[in-house]
Write a structure and sequence with these properties.
The complex is a heterodimer of chains A (110) and B (113).
Chain A: E1 3-5, E2 10-14, E3 19-21, E4 24-26, E5 32-38, E6 44-50, E7 56-58, E8 64-68, E9 73-78, E10 87-95, E11 97-100, E12 104-109
Parallel strand pairs in A: 2-12
Antiparallel strand pairs in A: 1-4, 3-9, 5-6, 5-10, 7-8, 8-9, 10-11, 10-12
Chain B: E1 5-7, E2 10-13, E3 19-24, E4 31-38, E5 42-50, E6 53-57, E7 64-68, E8 74-78, E9 87-94, E10 103-104, E11 108-112
Parallel strand pairs in B: 2-11
Antiparallel strand pairs in B: 1-3, 3-8, 4-5, 4-9, 5-6, 7-8, 9-10, 9-11
Classes of the chains: A mainly beta (110), B mainly beta (113).
């Protein structure tokens, strides 16, 4: 069965520092992969998606993610974090239905 | 285009009651999925509807049901509410089904007392 693992429950970074959020998936074929962000009390907003092709995908708000088949990973990165990036981030895999990881809560220190 | 809308945004019910939540998808989207989000269990898939047919169902008891209308609007019903049903219920719409990206509404916060 498909599954998604986000190993880090909570990450704290300083404003201006780089960010990498980890995501590992378990699926037999190449899945469709997504990153979503959720601000407190809000729904989820799509940051980026990977279906096929170039393994480095660009998203909104300056985020990017790299698909690595050999590592079954789809890590999210941002070169310089802003205070407004503080939120919860979810990785998801889709095939038939969409499965979400447990989420990583990002705190940004001033 | 207007986004996904969910009504009501907040709801307080008593154990044993039933509740109906509503979701209006983005215009042109034919698929609507429902999720339950709780601090302990995270985001859990409830069911997906496409063109008025339930396409997929998650691992929830029969007290949770849904339907989709011909205009793609969807409703979710929970009968005989339990305290553990307190959660944020999220609706998402997508153009097709299966692998399309989903667009989420703001959610309905249900509190069962």
């Amino acid at each position: 069965a498909q599954s998604v693992t986000q190993p880090d429950i909570h990450i704290t970074v300083s404003e201006g520092a780089s960010l990498e959020l980890r995501c590992n998936y378990s699926y037999g074929a190449t899945p469709y992969l997504f990153w979503y962000v959720q601000s407190p009390g809000q729904g989820l907003q799509l940051l980026l998606k990977y279906f096929s092709g170039d393994t480095l995908v660009q998203g909104i708000k300056g985020f990017e993610a790299e698909f690595k088949r050999s590592q079954s990973s789809f890590n999210l990165r941002k070169p310089s974090v802003h205070w407004s990036d503080a939120a919860e981030y979810f990785c998801a895999v889709a095939h038939g239905d969409m499965r979400f990881g447990a989420g990583t809560r990002l705190t940004v220190k001033p | 285009k207007a986004g996904v809308t969910q009504t009501p945004r907040y709801l307080i019910k008593t154990r044993g009651q039933q509740v109906t939540l509503s979701c209006s998808p983005i215009s042109g989207h034919r698929s609507v999925s429902w999720y339950q989000q709780t601090p302990g269990q995270g985001l859990q898939f409830l069911f997906e509807y496409f063109s008025e047919t339930q396409r997929n169902k998650g691992n929830f008891p029969g007290r949770f049901s849904g339907r989709q209308f011909s205009n793609s609007r969807s409703e979710m019903n929970v009968s005989t509410l339990e305290l553990g049903d307190s959660a944020l219920y999220l609706c998402a719409s997508s153009p097709g089904t299966g692998r399309d990206e989903q667009y989420f509404g703001p959610g309905t916060r249900l509190t069962v007392t």
